[in-house]
Amino acid sequence: MSTSIYPCLWFDGKAQEAAEFYKSIFSSFKILSENPMVIIFEINGTKLMGLNGGPMFTFSEAISLVIECKNQKEIDYYWEKLGQDGKENRCGWLIDKFGLSWQIIPSDLVKLMSNPETAPKVDQALMPMIKIDIATLYAAIN
């Protein structure tokens, strides 16, 4: 059995606007289908549905989209673009102007946090950060 699983993101009547915003940021973006209620799009190979719901449900940080970045330039790019009119949080988290939470992290952060020797040092360096600075993380473990 082949069953697709992908998130449905509830926007307060702004699903198409949100999709256009994400299209302006991600070079690998395509709209798969759309109608007045739903837009299905793909970002870097990940399928998402945007629903034009009403104001009764909103996003929270309990769900976030993670962007693994290969270098500081990518972190800076996504941080600047997704953070436009949004809200910055600690440890590489931000909320975009539609209320959707994103984690913008270095691709090797999970590896560094999983290593018992480096994890405490990385954690200590990471906690006061807003946007993640890769050089600071590596300086903490050297």
Give your account of this protein's structure.
With 142 residues, the chain is α/β, with parallel strands linked by helices. The chain has two domains: 57 residues, 2,3-Dihydroxybiphenyl 1,2-Dioxygenase, domain 1 (Roll); 84 residues, 2,3-Dihydroxybiphenyl 1,2-Dioxygenase, domain 1 (Roll), CATH 3.10.180. Helices cover 31% and strands 30% of the residues. The chain is built from five helices and eight strands; from the N terminus they run E-H-E-E-E-E-H-E-E-E-H-H-H. The strands form two sheets. Strands 1-4-3-2 form a four-stranded mixed sheet, covered by helices on one side. Helix 4 runs antiparallel to helix 5. It is elongated and about 55 Å long. The chain starts with 7 loop residues before the first strand and ends with a helix.
Task: Provide a brief overview of the structure.
The chain is an alpha/beta fold and 142 residues long. 31% of the residues lie in helices and 30% in strands. The N and C termini lie far apart (48 Å).
Mean of residue pLDDT?
96
Largest sheet: 4 strands, mixed
Oligomeric state of the chains present here: single chain
Give the C-level CATH assignment of the largest domain: Alpha Beta
Radius of gyration: 17 Å
Looking at this structure, what is the CATH superfamily of the largest domain?
2,3-Dihydroxybiphenyl 1,2-Dioxygenase, domain 1
CATH topology of the largest domain: 2,3-Dihydroxybiphenyl 1,2-Dioxygenase, domain 1
SSE sequence, one letter per element: EHEEEEHEEEHHH
| Number of beta-strand segments | 8
Alpha-beta classification = alpha/beta
Number of helices: 5
In terms of DSSP E residues, the strand content is 25-35%
Can you tell me the residue ranges where pLDDT is under 50 for at least 5 consecutive residues? none
How many discrete domains? Answer: 2
Distance between the termini: 48 Å
